[in-house]
C-alpha cells in the first residue's frame, strides 16, 4: 500500500489557513471534579467567544450531555451559533489535539487536496482509561466529511509534534521513544513512519518535558515554530526551578540544530511562568505544565494562554512581534491548565471541510 508521502502529501504548518477548529466541550468529572468543571467551562466560553470571530468551530460534546444545556451556555455569551457546529458523539475527554485527526495536504497548480492521518491514541500510555471513543474520532471526521484517510497503526498524539510545514518536525524522546507508546518500534522506524505519513524530511529530537506534564513531555509545552525558520523555546533563569535542567538541555540542542538544508535556525525564548500550584492535580502532582508555548495559531488570530502577571505581557509582546498580521488575544488559563493541558492541547486545526452540518 502506498504511503501519503508517495502521493505528495505533507503536514501543513499551523499558520496555514484552516477550515475550522475542533474543540470538545468539557464534561469528564474525573478530569474536572466538583467546582473545577464549572471553572473550565468558563475558560471554554472565553476561547469560543474569541475564536469563532475568526474561523468556524466544530464543537463535539459527549452524547450524555444535553445539547440544550450547551446551547444555553453558548447563548450566555456573544457567540454567533452559526459559526459553531455542534455534534453529539461518544467521547472521553477534551484533548482534541492528541486524539483528533492530523491533516496532510498536497498541492497542484489549481487546487489543494487534504487527507486525514489516523494515529492510535492510548491516553498517554494508558494513563486514563477509557479512551476508545476518543481514539475513534479521526475516523468519525473522515466519514462525516468524506475525506481521504490513511491509518498508520502507530501511537502518536498531536501535541507531541510540531512542524514548520516545510518538512522539519520537532518532538521529544521522552514521548515518542517511551515504551508506553510503541514498544515494538525503534527510533529509526518511528522516524520513517513520520516521514511516510506526514511528509517529514528531518526530525529535531529534544529530550524531556515539564514537571507535571502527564503526557511525558509534549513538545507543545516546550518549543514551537513561529515561522519556517524560527523556534520559540521556554526557559527559566532560576536554577532551583524543577524544570531548569530540562529546559537548558533543550535550548542547547536547538541552538546547535540545523534544518534539512544544513541551515541554522533562529531560536527565541520566553520565561516559563509559575508551574507550582498550591493544591494537587487529580494525579497528585504539585506542578502543572503552564507554558506560553501552548499557544494556538488560527485564521487571523493567535490565542495565547496567560498564567502569571510577571511574564504574561512579555509573552504577548513576543507574539505581536512574530505575528504582526494576526490579532493577539490572551486567555487566562490558570483553571484550564489545572487539568494538565492548555489552549493548544484542546484545539485541533481542520482542513478541507466544506460543510458544517
| Structural class computed from helices and strand pairing | alpha/beta
The average pLDDT value, as a whole number, equals 96
Kindly state the percentage of residues in helix. Answer: 25-40%
Query: Terminal Cα separation, in Å?
Result: 33 Å
Q: How are the strands of the biggest sheet laid out side by side?
A: 3-2-1-16
Per DSSP, the total helix count is 12
Number of domains: 1
Determine the CATH topology.
L-arginine/glycine Amidinotransferase, Chain A
CATH architecture: 5-stranded Propeller
Based on CA atoms alone, the radius of gyration comes out at 19 Å
The best one-word shape is globular
Q: How many DSSP-defined strands?
A: 16
**SSE pattern, N- to C-terminal:** EHEHEHEEHHHEEEHHEEEHEEEHEHHE
Largest sheet: 4 strands, mixed
